[in-house]
Amino acid sequence: MSVNTVSCTVKPAITLQLGDAKTDTSRPGVYVIDVTLPIGQTVNIQEISFKNYYTACLTLRLLIRGEEGAAKWATCLRNRCLMPSPHTEEGSQDYYSVYRQQMLIEPDNVLAVRLILRQPSSSWLNFSVEEIKIHPCITEDPERDIPDWLSDLTHVDQLSDLQGLPDPQTVSSSIQQMWALTEVMQTNQTTASVGRFDVDGCYDINLLSFT
């Protein structure tokens, strides 16, 4: 179950009953519960969760805002069984979730949710659903893929690796000056050979060695 929930208002259940409600004393078999969002707000639903209270089956309808702004109701879940047998206790007070993948339509841009509850058995005095929660789709933030502490640690490591090294611009300037000096020396280099002991065209007797 998703942790995040949407702020919404669960309205009191409305009875759907055939005949005159004042004169017909039979227990109604259908209730309708509307869940509304704040005015002007829509939600992309990931999950709807609730606790059952003796409801045999459930139908879900969504009020969806269209591309042109008009809203219309659409059925996203039809006759979901909550109690295998409406006359026995099984499933009567279980927690249920309806996930996005189980819905008949894409539950996006939803303005309201309508729950239609049915209980054909007369064994129970009342039935409903409780703790209704709407869970939105969570969009992933690419900037949060890397934890903050790891990003900060990497930044510090990069700074520590650069400490003690000369400035790249200074190194580049020095290399350029050395290259220019080399070019000047190569241009001015003479092609005349200089003898090891040759001084002004003659040999210095003091530089000669005798063997």
Describe the protein.
The protein is rod-shaped and about 135 Å long. It is built from two helices and eleven strands. By secondary structure, the protein is α+β, with helices and mostly antiparallel strands. The strands form three sheets. Strands 1, 2, 3, 5, 6 and 8 form a six-stranded antiparallel β-sheet that branches.
Structure summary:
The protein is of the alpha+beta class and 211 residues long. Helix content is 17%, strand content 32%. The protein is built from 2 helices and 11 strands; from the N terminus they run βββββββββααββ.
Radius of gyration: 42 Å
Q: Got a strand count?
A: 11
Residues in helix, %: 10-25%
Q: Helical element count?
A: 2
Mean pLDDT: 79
Question: Ends: how far apart?
Answer: 103 Å
Uncertain segments: none
Spatial shape: rod-shaped
Structural class, judged by helices and strands? alpha+beta
Which H/E pattern describes the elements?
EEEEEEEEEHHEE
Q: What profile does the largest beta sheet have?
A: 6 strands, antiparallel
% residues in beta strands: 25-35%
Q: What does the secondary structure layout of this molecule look like, with pairings?
A:
Layout: E1 9-10, E2 14-16, E3 30-36, E4 45-53, E5 57-65, E6 71-81, E7 95-99, E8 110-118, E9 128-136, H1 148-162, H2 168-187, E10 198-199, E11 202-203
Antiparallel strand pairs: 1-3, 2-3, 3-8, 4-7, 4-9, 5-6, 5-8, 10-11
